[in-house]
Amino acid sequence: MRLVSWNVNGIRAAMKKDFAQALHDMNTDVICLQETKAQDDQVMTALEGIEGFHVYANSADKKGYSGTAILTRTEPLSIHYDMDQAEHNLEGRVIALEFDTYFLVTVYTPNSGSELKRLDYREQWDADFLTHLKQLEQQKPVVVCGDLNVAHRDIDLARAKPNYNKSAGYMQREIDGLDNLVAAGFIDTFRYQHPDEAKYSWWSYRAGARGNNVGWRIDYFMVSDSIKDRIEDADILTEVMGSDHCPVQLDIKL
């Protein structure tokens, strides 16, 4: 199985930037999208030219904001949107698909914001999302992917020291949330495969950050420890353009 996750920063904008060709070139069985910035019907309309996939979308109440979608060649056994906590279900941030041997979850984790106004909310989100994943894991192993909006370690961003505990995405409270995910038995597949490689998945649009590779690794594939031996490869597709994020990829036997 080849799985891809990509924060497209607007699916309608992405379709105008050769998304269809990129999808073809990646030759993936499933692609999970974050930040679709569209209502469910708008996602379906935008993807009308894409063939061979079942499409599932979860949009925010607020138009043009947040949103997730999954395109899968194999029809799932069941589809689950959002979490059990009502306060988290207004922004279209979670989709879980059940397949024969595993759950696939995509997530667009809330950003704490430039002034950290949502840091408290983000901390609660992380705790509740972990609970959600562990509940699914009681039934089957879980593959979770998406924009987690946090760099885990110094190696995961180009300028760690000036950003630590000052910038959204590298606050200790956010790092703790990812630490808790790892402590609960979820494997960071890229770091598992590439322990010492510095590679990024997001770059600011400012100051030529992508051209200078001043980036952050904030997009992940995490898997239940019970299936870590099935990982064949994990990569970050830095050459794929069309968003301020690039896709991340997981090849795994499922």
How does this structure look, described?
By secondary structure, the chain is of the alpha+beta class. The protein has a single domain (2-252), classed as Endonuclease/exonuclease/phosphatase (Deoxyribonuclease I, Chain A, 4-Layer Sandwich), CATH 3.60.10. The chain is 24% helix and 26% strand. It is built from seven helices and 14 strands. It has helices spanning 11-15, 19-26, 40-46, 119-137, 160-163, 172-183, 189-193; strands at 2-7, 30-34, 54-58, 68-72, 78-81, 94-98, 103-108, 142-147, 186-188, 202-203, 215-216, 219-224, 231-236, 248-252. Strands 3-4-2-1-14-13 form a six-stranded mixed β-sheet. A six-stranded mixed β-sheet has the order 5-6-7-8-12-9. Strands 10-11 form a two-stranded antiparallel ribbon. Helix 4 (119-137) links the parallel strand 7 and strand 8. The longest helix is centred in the middle third of the chain and has 19 residues, at 119-137. It is globular and about 45 Å long. The model has no long low-confidence stretch (mean pLDDT 97).
Briefly characterize the structure.
The protein is of the alpha+beta class and 254 residues long. The strands form three sheets. Strands 3-4-2-1-14-13 form a six-stranded mixed β-sheet.
In CATH, the homologous superfamily goes by the name Endonuclease/exonuclease/phosphatase
Just give the CATH class: Alpha Beta
State the order of secondary-structure elements, H for helix, E for strand.
Answer: EHHEHEEEEEHEHHEHEEEEE
Look at the helices and sheets and give the structural class.
alpha+beta
Q: What is the tally of helical segments?
A: 7
Mean pLDDT: 97
Strand content: 25-35%
Summarize the biggest pleated sheet: 6 strands, mixed
The helicity comes to 10-25%
- Through-space gap between termini: 7 Å
Fill in the CATH topology. Deoxyribonuclease I, Chain A
- Low-pLDDT segments, ≥5 res: none
- Biggest sheet strand line-up: 3-4-2-1-14-13
- Overall structural domain count: 1
Number of separate strands: 14
Compute the gyration radius: what is it? 17 Å
Q: Please tell me the CATH architecture by its name.
A: 4-Layer Sandwich
Shape: globular
